[in-house]
Amino acid sequence: EYPPSVRVSLFFLATPPFFSDSAMQRVFSSYKLYRSIPSYARNSFPSFSTVSIGATARKLHESEFRYDLMKWGSIGFRRMSRFASGFSPLREKPLDSIVDIHRLKDRYPDDIASIWDDYHIGRGHIGTTMKAKLYHLLEHRAKECRYFVIPLWRGSGYTTMFVQVQTPYILFTGLEDYKARGTQASPYFSVRFYTEFAESKDLVLIRGDIVFTSKLTDAEAKWLMETAQSFYLNDVRYKLVERFNKDTRDFEFKDVLQALDMPIL
Predict the structure, then answer these.
(1) DSSP H or E stretch at residue 237
(2) Distance of alpha carbon 157 from the chain centroid
(3) Neighbours of 129 (CB within 10 A)
(4) Euclidean distance between CA atoms 179 and 88, whole angstroms
(5) All structural domains of the chain with their residue ranges
(6) Residue of 63, 64, 220, 243 whose CA lies nearest to 253
(7) Is the pTM of this model over 0.85?
(8) What is the pLDDT of residue 185?
(9) Membrane spanning segments where (predicted)?
(10) Rounded to an integer, what is the distance from CA 30 to the centroid of its chain?
(11) Which residues pair with 125 in a beta bridge?
């Protein structure tokens, strides 16, 4: 049996970063969401109200939800996903450019998951897995409810992240950054689901890439990924996602805070 470092390296290929330097430099080109969603830190919230969040969500539905949030370019894509304007091209990272699929196909699911997780430790990426059944539930729900907002707690306050789930991707964008940079704001974090082993191993591989390490720590990115999944996979939490996407007049941001045991500032 090979030691862990050698065992992992047998299955993975040396590859360039997931994103090019110029990838995805524009976010929410026509959205004005930042005007009514709270920004980072406690003393930044004196005018915050859950009513403004609901009003913002309604505006998105009325004017922009007929489009997708993102736009992928043609670079590196075999198939085109239809996204709205606002993003520069994102380079596709196929699984066979990361892992030797043929070496893994005869391994047990637990072995594949362990190798995948170990490989990503300390490489600026987050590697994890989920059961195929859960991924299919996420995929199904994301088709109906693609957008959500998640507060990321930081000491004495939180920053609000806007999330789009369009499988096999999830994108996280900081609204405060958009407020400062407008159309030059960029996603902080991208998650990619790989389903090559879903049918044969009941296993979906997940890779998270922190686009800007100055914006998110590994721990924060991992928390965002797990939290976003929980809102789509947990029946109680998913009701908030449905409300944000379908019944925006009834959506209250404080319900998200309460679901995450965060104080209402």
Answers:
(1) helix 235-246
(2) 21
(3) 20
(4) 19
(5) 4-259
(6) 243
(7) no
(8) 60
(9) none
(10) 20
(11) 209
Task: Burial-class residue 122 by CB neighbours within 10 Å (0-12, 13-18, 19+).
Answer: exposed
Quote the CA–CA distance of 255 and 8 in Å, as a whole number: 42
Give the pLDDT of residue 47. Answer: 29
- Classify 49 as helix, strand or coil: coil
In sign, the C-alpha dihedral spanning 40, 27, 91, 137 is positive
- CA 108 to centroid of chain Cα atoms: 28
Would you give the DSSP letter of residue 33? Answer: G
**Burial (Cβ within 10 Å: 0-12, 13-18, ≥19) of residue 190:** buried
Residue type for 63, please? S
Instruction: State the 10-residue block means of pLDDT for the chain, 265 residues long.
Output: 45 38 29 36 33 48 39 25 37 86 94 92 86 98 95 90 91 77 73 97 96 90 97 98 95 96 88
CB 87 within 8 A of CB 72: yes
Secondary structure, 3-state, 153-204: EECCEEEEEEEEEECCEEEEEEHHHHHHHHHHCCCCEEEEEECCCHHHHCEE
Map tokens 């969040």 to a residue.
53
Strand partners, 209: 125, 190
- Measure the CA–CA gap between 222 and 228, rounded to whole angstroms: 10
Task: Tokens for 99, please give them.
Answer: 């892992």
What are the phi and psi torsion angles at 206 (to 5°)? -125, 130
Distance CA 98, CA 15 (A): 7
Half-sphere CA count of 239, side-chain side, radius 13 A:
6
Residue whose tokens read 């170990």:
118
Q: Please report the beta strands in the chain, taking only residues with DSSP state E, as ranges in sequence order.
A: 125-131, 147-154, 157-166, 169-174, 189-194, 203-210
What pLDDT score does 12 carry? 52
